[in-house]
Amino acid sequence: MRLKLPYYLSCVLLLFSISVCAQITDDFTDSNFTSSPTWTGNDTDFIVNASQQMQLSSSGTSASYLSIANTQLLYGCEWNFWIHLNFSPSTSNYARVYLISDQQNLSGNLNGYYLQFGEALANDRVELFRKSGTTSTSVCRGTTPIATAFTLRIKITRDSMGLWKLFIDPTGGTNYVQEASGTDNTFTNTSFFGLYCKYTSTNSTKFFFDDFYIYSPPDTTPALLDSIKVISKNQVDAYFSKTLSTASAQTLANYSVSNNIGVPSSAVLDTINPSLVHLTFPNNFMNGQTYTLTVTGVQDLAGNTTLNATKTFFYFHPLANDIVINEIMADINPAPNSLPAYEYLELYNRTNFPVSLKGWKLSDATSTATLPDICILPDSFYVLTSTSAASLFGNSLSVAGVTSFPSLNDTGDEMILRDENGNIISVIFYRPDWYNNPMKQNGGWALEQIDPNNPCSGKSNWKASADNAGGTPGRKNSVNASAPDAAPPKLSHATVISSNSIQLFFDEYMDSTTLINISAYTIDNVIGNPVSADPVEPDYTSVLLTFSSSLNADTIYSVTVNGVQDCAGNTIASGSTAQFAIAQPAEPNDIVINEVMFDPKDNGVEWIEIYNRSAKVIDLKEIYVCSQDNYGNLTDINQVATSGYLIFPQKYIVLSKDASSIKKQYSTPNTEGFIDMTSIPSLNNDSDYVVLANISQTVIDKLHYHSEWHLPLLNDTKGISLERINFENLTQDENNWHSAAESVGGATPAYKNSQYTTGESGTEVTLIPEVFSPDNDGYNDVLSINYTFDTPGMIGNVSVYDSRGRLTKTLVRNELLAASGTFFWDGITDEKEKSRIGIYIIYFEAFDTKGKVKKCKKTCVVAGKL
User: Fold this and answer.
1) pLDDT for residue 208
2) Is 698 helix (H, G, I), strand (E, B) or coil?
3) Is 461 exposed, middle or buried (CB count within 10 Å of its CB: 0-12, 13-18, 19+)?
4) In a domain, 649, yes or no
5) Are 785 and 826 in the same domain?
6) What CA–CA distances, in Å, run from 619 to 49, 292, 507, 582, 642?
7) 520 lies in which domain range?
8) Mind giving me the DSSP string for 97-120?
9) What digits encode the pLDDT tens for the residues 402-411?
10) How far is CA 125 from CA 171, 242, 604, in A?
11) Between the chain's N and C termini, which has fewer beta carbons within 10 Å?
12) Burial class (CB in 10 A: 0-12, 13-18, 19+), 54
């Protein structure tokens, strides 16, 4: 005969029955189940047998249950019982012990938890389920096989946080071993405990149960303040060790935060987790500040009161560029050498604090993705990629798969990282020329930031990865170097938005907090300071100024800017100015095509120079640069300036995709006369159309150039532009175009053409000074030889002879000359010797391809001290 539980255990249970939480015990030593406690249900289907065990005693195929009332047990409970099934369980023959139920009838729909004994033959294990109506969900599952007849003693516990633990002694004794655990806090109260038997006729008497006891010790421990989670600038979540009473948890006076934050304005007990309180305060936390939360007077369900519990928390929220986009793998065709062939983007945390990226957004120009709940550690990296690629980067890197990860366009894209409140944290407008390597920009290489502590310098702070793998995701960039930004920002230009507002543009990312200062801007002609200054997202390279009075249509204004800073903290030069005016519409020939570079140097770009020959201020937002097909239809139409750009009378503007490469290859005294466009019409080296038009496709100017227009004497025209000779002559007149002079480097982007001439004759060669002394005393040390011709395209030779007619110095030989220019002689001979004192003859000879020859002799004196 199986031994009953020792008597002392029953005594312990009875002693505890006077506590707040009731205990239930039944070992059937009274030979009944109708009292102490009272089991109800299918009572005719059960007996207490001679061994003082509850036994199913039915017939046929059916299901039977018994339950007892149990209304006070919630948390910190233990259930213990003995069970014996004298058959092999199956889906037709099994037992359930309901630990918690909101219904007395255990055969129907209910909410609660039960242990299942028997399911699928060889796979049978003891399993805890939550039942919601008719749906059962597994909480945890034991390991002891019960595929054949078995005898077990079960102990299962549930703590105040909803953690269930399953203990089993497979011999039916009390040597328990924990086999499983799981957390479920769905149901927090109970009405009934009981058992349910499902059986066929052959097993209708083979279910045995004994030694039921349900135990909950008295709760005398107050809830502990476990932790605090900062939610926002004025919200924290307070986590406690146990369930709280609603009234005390939501009493505002029970909470206080140090450093003048004080009592919360609301305290809300979480509806799902009753040990969590959401606190909102009327005052905001200061960034980088440590605070202490004090809790006193909060009670748990047993009435235990928490007194003077404290926890410190630190509030930090990243500002702009605290987290930066640090590496971009956009073009994976061809694939990188030894990296996954997937696009990725790397973030870097520049701060000393961990930062949660939960709820942050990553956007490009057409889509937005929400980042998962990840945390980027101080001075650390996190790689973002598509969900399908995340596992391919290995376990050694911090990698997150992002649902709907934006496509990183090969041709350039706008990437914006925003925090959960929509604030811009990092922004990048990358383009292929950022690689600074024509080979690597064709694919298989990442773009890496050079100095992550200088995140506002754009192209100059990025280049192609130097790592053989193709990139360095999740680790220090291969091109990492210190490259601080010490250059002040420049005011690029201004454009008119409305009758009382303008927009200013800067050459780099600005500190938006300095842009909002209205006293930083002064406008002449009685306008004064603006009434508002609104930085323009996402990169803050511009600011919108609004005035209290309207602008006059016939006035050119100047705006002066002082005190604003770029995002590196450099202040703009004092008194920086830009002009603006209300623009007038362009009519045909107001703006003309003035110079074309269709065969650029290696690593150079094609470009088109335009010139405003009218007296109007014209907004290039209204102008489009196009090509034309053989039927006269405009093609490849590109808006010159999507955000607006004013071209003033007698000003030059160069249109290209990369002004920086032009400035590297040519002299550009007018550095502001350039507009970077996303695209311009492709210029064929042999012949092509360049058309300027307005939104209605009215042609403003049109050029159909031919490579034959270049000077035939030039062996190579690569890197040499075609220049317009005169603004007033017809654009399509072949004789109004000529190769740019070699003496100016082959092109004159954004300034007066080397071949420009009005056609007026004048003095052709002059010497200044006619007497010079090349003794390096700072006075008349160099002879200037100035020339002006009335026709372009002359080939020149300039030589120096002594008074006896002997060649002393060859200054120029067969050089394509500009329409006007200057050569210099420092008094040094071809033999690298200083010329003797005396009279010298400057012989200037120029000729063109039509046989026209100009010759000129001028005398000068080389003087010196005797």
Assistant:
1) 98
2) coil
3) buried
4) yes
5) yes
6) 102, 58, 19, 9, 10
7) 491-580
8) EEEEES-S-TTS-EEEEEEEE-SS
9) 999 999 999 8
10) 15, 31, 74
11) C
12) buried
